[in-house]
Design brief:
The protein has 357 residues and is of the alpha+beta class. It has three domains: 138 residues, Alpha Horseshoe (Serine Threonine Protein Phosphatase 5, Tetratricopeptide repeat); 81 residues, Trypsin-like serine proteases (Thrombin, subunit H, Beta Barrel); 94 residues, Thrombin, subunit H (Beta Barrel). It has ten helices and 14 strands. A hairpin with a 4-residue loop joins strand 12 and strand 13. The N and C termini lie far apart (55 Å).
């Protein structure tokens, strides 16, 4: 045992021998934990936790029951202790306990206690006590919601529609670069786009991710041409549908929120000949606007597609196709320029079905 560990252990022994109160017991537990003695730490924390006015000690006991550290793993006991802390209304530990209960009921510690309504309630109580991370957890607990909208009453002046649409919708379309871990380090394997549909999630094309890798985007916080570390956003792939060529991404950073668009136009209301706009990253050029018309409505392998003359090329996949009012018509998926300008987007009805499954 090194000198520091020995001193911490002696400190814990002295505090134990003095028969001191909850605070001394807690400090003894903390010292034992630093010394690597989980059994002794648990015993001290449990003694301190018997005092109802010591939520921090109760929280530590709950943590150790949940992890099976210093005692047998017991999720039921962990829940019981976390509930005591949650009900204490302590400004620091009560929201943390609600958060932990939410994670347990979300199924993070096994399906035995899976209860999504209970998880939602715990995250809500946590968020009400000022924990912004719990607001994110509450949103992510339910599938993204897409809103069907009728046309706006005010039309843009002639020649202004594209300008207005770009200003409103471009911030919600992100360039995505997928990196693979190779011997030489991270190497880009594909480039595409994604459209954010709520503050934390985005839709993209599955084919960009099918080889694996880490999706990354750049969100510059200022006009500086240089990319800073703070501008880099990493995503998790949480759901895919190869048949529809769709994937759902979640932003890794809990401290960030996305500009998003969730207003859609159903497939049955899309009309051949109507003007449309695509926003994506063709050839890696982020937030590029192109325009065209709906040239056909098709079904391929049971998937509804919007065919358009708006150019879609490498880097545009996973981007957004909008109508003149700025409503989402589809997720751009592929373009064929070899025999003409044939471009396709997966209809938003397919996206809704994908999110609901």
């Amino acid at each position: 045992m090194d000198r520091i560990s020995l001193l911490l252990t002696l400190c814990a022994l002295l505090l134990t021998g003095c028969g001191l109160g909850g605070d001394a017991r807690y400090q003894a537990g903390y010292a034992a934990r630093l010394a690597g003695d989980d059994d002794r730490a648990f015993a001290h924390y449990q003694e301190a936790a018997r005092s109802n006015d010591y939520p921090e000690a109760q929280y530590r006991v709950a943590e150790m029951f949940l992890a099976g550290r210093g005692t047998s793993q017991d999720t039921g006991q962990a829940i019981s202790w976390f509930r005591q802390v949650a009900e204490s209304r302590d400004p620091v530990w009560s929201p943390q306990a609600h958060r932990q209960l939410g994670l347990i009921y979300r199924g993070d510690h096994g399906r035995a206690y899976l209860d999504r309504p209970a998880a939602a309630e715990q995250f809500r109580l946590c968020a009400e006590q000022g924990e912004t991370a719990c607001t994110r957890l509450l949103v992510l607990l339910t599938p993204p919601s897409l809103q069907v909208s009728s046309a706006s009453v005010e039309a843009s002046p002639p020649g202004q529609a594209a300008v207005d649409l770009y200003a409103r919708r471009a911030p919600s379309v992100y360039k995505i670069v997928v990196y693979a871990q190779l011997d030489a380090g991270l190497e880009p394997t594909s480039v595409g786009s994604a459209i954010a549909i709520d503050p934390y999630r985005a839709i993209t094309s599955y084919h960009l991710l099918q080889a694996g890798g880490i999706p990354v985007s750049i969100d510059r916080r200022n006009d500086n041409e240089y990319v800073r570390e703070a501008d880099v956003q990493q995503w998790q792939v949480v759901k895919v549908d190869p048949r529809r060529d769709l994937a759902l991404l979640v932003l890794d950073d809990p401290g960030r929120q996305l500009s998003f668009t969730n207003t859609i136009k159903p497939y049955e209301r899309v009309r051949v000949g109507e003007k449309v706009f695509a926003i994506g990253a063709p050839a890696g050029l982020e937030k590029t606007l192109t325009e065209g018309i709906v040239s056909a409505l098709r079904t391929e392998n049971g998937v509804r597609l919007v065919q358009t003359t708006a150019p879609i090329s490498y880097g545009s996949s996973g981007g957004a196709l909008f109508d003149a009012e700025g409503r989402l018509l589809g997720i751009t998926t592929k373009g064929v320029q070899a025999w003409g300008n044939f471009n396709f987007a997966v209809a938003m009805d397919e996206v809704q079905a994908f999110l609901a499954e």
